[in-house]
Amino acid sequence: MFNNIGIPGLILIAVVVLVLFGRGKVSALMGEVGKGITAFKKGVSEGSTENDEETRTAEQARIESPAATTHDATPAPETLRERDKV
């Protein structure tokens, strides 16, 4: 639908928006959009940093305690039977 807008179409849309809303409102809106993009980038960066820290902590715990990761996590059959009775 919008495949054939092109540069002249975008310029026309920009002019119409400026006429309808005025330069002050458009600049304020773009400022808010910029702040939103900055906050989004900061959140993504903090999330990846937090994820990296959790990964390092888990890796360090695995290295310090190898016996904890080598046991079988499958419950014994008697444990399953006791759980089914309840």
What does it look like?
It is a single chain. With 86 residues, this protein is mainly alpha-helical. The protein has helices spanning 6-64, 66-70, 77-85. The protein starts with 5 loop residues before the first helix and ends with a helix.
Short description:
This protein has 86 residues and is mainly α.
Radius of gyration, in Å, reads 29 Å
How large is the share of residues in beta strands?
under 5%
Using DSSP, what is the number of strands?
A: 0
- pLDDT < 50 runs, ≥5 residues: none
Largest sheet: none
Query: Span from first to last CA?
Result: 61 Å
Which whole number gives the mean pLDDT? 79
**Approximate shape:** elongated
- Work out the helix count: 3
Q: Which structural class do the helices and strands define?
A: mainly alpha
Instruction: Summarize the amount of helix as a percent range.
Output: over 70%
- SSE string: HHH
